[in-house]
Amino acid sequence: MSRGYNFSSGPAALPESVLAQARDEMLEWRGARASVMEISHRGKDFIALAEESERDLRALMSVPASHKILFLQGGATQHFAQIPMNFAAGRTADYVVTGSWGQKAAKEAKPSCTVRIAGSSEAAGFLKLPDGYAFDPSAAYVHVTTNETIGGVELHVLPSTGDVPIVADMSSNILSRPIDVSRYGIIYAGAQKNIGASGLVVMIVREDLLARCPPTLPNILNYSAHVKEGSMLNTPNTFGWYLASLVFKWLANQGGVERMGEINGAKAKVLYDYIDGSGFYSNPIDRACRSRMNVPFRLADEALDGKFLAESEAAGLLALKGHRSVGGMRASIYNAMPVEGVKALIDFMKDFAKRQG
Amino acid sequence: MSRGYNFSSGPAALPESVLAQARDEMLEWRGARASVMEISHRGKDFIALAEESERDLRALMSVPASHKILFLQGGATQHFAQIPMNFAAGRTADYVVTGSWGQKAAKEAKPSCTVRIAGSSEAAGFLKLPDGYAFDPSAAYVHVTTNETIGGVELHVLPSTGDVPIVADMSSNILSRPIDVSRYGIIYAGAQKNIGASGLVVMIVREDLLARCPPTLPNILNYSAHVKEGSMLNTPNTFGWYLASLVFKWLANQGGVERMGEINGAKAKVLYDYIDGSGFYSNPIDRACRSRMNVPFRLADEALDGKFLAESEAAGLLALKGHRSVGGMRASIYNAMPVEGVKALIDFMKDFAKRQG
Question: With an 8 Å Cβ cutoff, are B41 and A198 in contact?
Fold first, then answer.
């Protein structure tokens, strides 16, 4: 057995060199004479890691001084609920819904604010972007999901929301290309796709918005309190944070998000081009919003799905089964998926199609 | 450099064999051809791990069928806030406060319920247990902290609360000896002391209490929803869960919590006996509630603290500095600390005391 090309939608593939370093340091990290998991988050060694990782992420994403960075827990889903508690309590918030995650975010917000759907492509089966947006200029924020992993829909152009801050669930495409962070009020992302392992959430928040966090909240649910304590209001997920720090170094060594954007663009293009021209596979998403991260595709005959999955798995192409709600296949090709993995997938797809004659 | 004896209060030492297994499986876990961190939590491989770990924990602690087991995130601190939201909304809850963590639990509960202090040893500097308890028979629950890591106070005898369920923060002494789980409404514990790595919380909850969880809560903050989804309402901390599963196997191999209770009792006894008889070191806690997990001690002259710490660190006895709020030293001797580590500490303490002439 050896490692396969892993197309899992998340928890997803990590760079092999990152895993190898985590392996090599598992019993003794730096000079700690202990694992990074076994030391106090308040000791100088871990504080150094925390500060360095924040600097590295700030550099990678060109995060301006106006924005704070948090390393939290709970998965993006917890923050679906916690963001409206902090930033829209008693107010209206606009939600743009382009897939399942946007739907969930809106649902989890309902106990804490008035949720207004400012645009949705649900009626179109989430196969394209909403036809337009109707924003409320008095909304607390506009929530968007920049990439929908299940449908395979990416928001390539950020809507114009005037003075209303944009809150973006960027779980599945953060760090996949350059973005202008200053255009966002809040960016948040579960780590298990493009940052590291599950159990860690990275949040980038414009400092002036923290004045909204209600002091009546329990401290642990108050983002302002987390910022004040440098993400150490309580014990953070230290191993998750450590892994993220290794991924940030890896990204810098790859050439940063500019280079990742080029590679990700090329990986997606070659796969979509093959699918579109194959006459055997198909992708139903409007080209204007096809995801560079998650490429769902169907076979000409869905009776062949099981065979495709068994044979691809045997060929070392892992986790290609599509989400049960859309069926078919899905290739998730985040930062850690090398070009060679996409080429191997296409070679397999070609061969499989030919063999069905 | 090599691994030291690690007396960190948390994140704390893990069994070396567990770390070695995690190292060896880092790039390829079982037959997954990927790390355990890189696979879907909803796939059959991870589901098997999740089910096995629950069975193992249920066996180790003899958890009765009346109680459900959850693997969550957020640290115990998040659950300080979330437990009253779920189980005491609009009601009064009794809190027993025997140290800093009990104080924090009570503080985080205040936004969600009426907090009543049913017993506190704060006036006695948390050096002993409260003189008595005044429980409210109509309280939603009685919250206790079974071990206080900072003061070094352990609740060796559970108070009688009649029909009022006991909610226990067992973060620092779970799995350290046999307990009767049926006496508890809820047991919860951050994993980073006796279970595994930070970023994971284990909760054991009596099923009938779940009827209290308000349906108006966001789903992700509702324990009933987590039980319904088998701790997979969202992506769990999969690596943390995996590490916990390895620790459960290790504990079973050690002889289970009965044997750990004997070892932990012996480790604590030899250390307290030495301190009490040394004429140089002292522990201020009432013997009726001294912690078997965290042993704070002072030197005869606190001007020697820095020297003690530098020399102990150089001798491979790590992280002995006491919490800043109480000063002095603290030896945390959880399950993963072998008897040999405590002996090495005592040998060093003897030698150090002698050298101060």
Answer: yes
Helix spans in chain A (H):
16-24, 44-61, 75-87, 100-109, 223-228, 238-254, 256-278, 305-314, 339-355
ipTM confidence score: 0.98
Domain of B309, in residue numbers: 255-355
Tell me, yes or no, whether A196 and A54 share the same domain.
yes
- Torsion of Cα atoms, A250 then B236 then A155 then A71, to 10°: -50
Task: Note whether B108 contacts A37, CB cutoff 8 Å.
Answer: no
* Other CB atoms within 10 Å distance of the CB of residue A216: 9
Q: What confidence tens digit (pLDDT) does each residue in B208-231 have?
A: 999 999 999 999 999 999 999 999
pLDDT 10s digits, B68-116: 999 999 999 999 999 999 999 999 999 999 999 999 999 999 999 999 9
DSSP for A193-212, please give it: TTTSSTT-EEEEEEGGGGGG
Check which CATH number belongs to the domain holding B297 and give it.
3.90.1150.10
B34 and A75: CB-CB below 8 Å? Answer: no
Are residues B73 and B161 both part of a single domain? Answer: yes
From A211, A227, A253, the end of a domain falls on A253
pLDDT band at B357 (very low <50, low <70, confident <90, very high): confident
Tokens representing residue A269 in the block: 């293009």
CATH number at residue A209: 3.40.640.10
- A224 and A277 co-located in one domain: no
Nearest to B8 by CA among B338, B266, B333, B339: B333
Cβ–Cβ pairs < 8 A, chains A and B = 223
Residue A329 domain-assigned (yes or no) = yes
Task: Tell me the chain A residues in contact with residue B294 when contact means C-beta distances shorter than 8 Å.
Answer: none
Q: Which of A206, A234, A253 is the last residue of a domain?
A: A253
Does some domain include residue B111?
A: yes
